[in-house]
Request: fold
Amino acid sequence: MSSASALGTPLPSNKLNAAAVDRTTRLMERGLLPDRVIRLGIRRLLAQRLREEASGGVEQQSERRRALIEMLRRSPIAVSTQEANAQHYEVPARFFQLALGKQLKYSSALWLEDCRSLDEAEEHMLRLTVERAQLRDGQFILELGCGWGSLTIYMARRFPASRITAVSNSASQREYITSQLRAIGRDNVRIITADMNLFAGPAEPVDRVVSVEMFEHMRNYEQLLSRIASWMKRDALLFVHIFTHRIFSYPFEVRDDSDWMARFFFTGGIMPSDDLLLNFQRDVTLSDHWLESGGHYEKTARAWLENTDAHRDEILQIFRDTYAAHLPRDEQAAEAMKWLVRWRVFFMACEELWGYRNGQEWSVSHYLFGKK
Reply:
């Protein structure tokens, strides 16, 4: 996910038998559980998460929300940044070329009624992002969390007179994007590798800031938005695309070995509610706000899973080289298979989460902020 992606299905463990969870996880990672059983387990855990978040009635929900907002205000801008790199962004680009669409958009696509493929859906969401962010040729644009460069390269092509600075936490992503820009002959982009805790911002104020699925990896939104506002011209705009739940916000914490998603794919991440960012308008002010059905992400994740299955053998070799090269040769195949299963389950978890209740529970939120 562009930054992120990172998407997460909650795996709360406090009500589950730890030994049973461990046995089930070992069977799953050996490829011995059918997809239908895994999906059933995911849906059960989603229902459990909703019960937990709704417990205690409105007063207790309000107190938990206030405590979360206070925790975010006390936190660093981002936590577990190195874990996020290892989990998503330092996997070879070839894997994502096989699993994602042709533009390597590691975030929700937009499936319009006439949409026939993931490639088309990627294009639709990129076009919508440009429209809602009010991007124009000749602007100085800052992109935070550029992923594998889907929006970066799209903007570079469409706005040749613009100057674009794109920030990623991953050196491998920077190398990949740079090679793609070189191939299409664009020199209007600067790629920076930086931890958002340390990023000092561009050398001069910008006209637009865009961020697609990075904020889910952030914690201190007030400090982050304050920094972003300081980089913006007076009439500049900030566009944010994040995935959300309709009313609940919760962090992903590794509480024990059964917190599978937090351990392997979303360490330090947060599931924001659709209105969570609106509590942090000290330095920015909301100009517009949109909500897209989770069904778009459901179809996107399903396409990622189908692509993964279609390229199973090549992906197994990539995972053998990536995750298992340090192991004895007789253990490498099993380790590669374990990681193939993990990525498949991750994509299934994303599909089930955004498809839950016909895409009306978890969604994709877009925001346009001005500088205060």
User: Anything to note?
Assistant: The first strand starts at residue 140 and ends at 144.
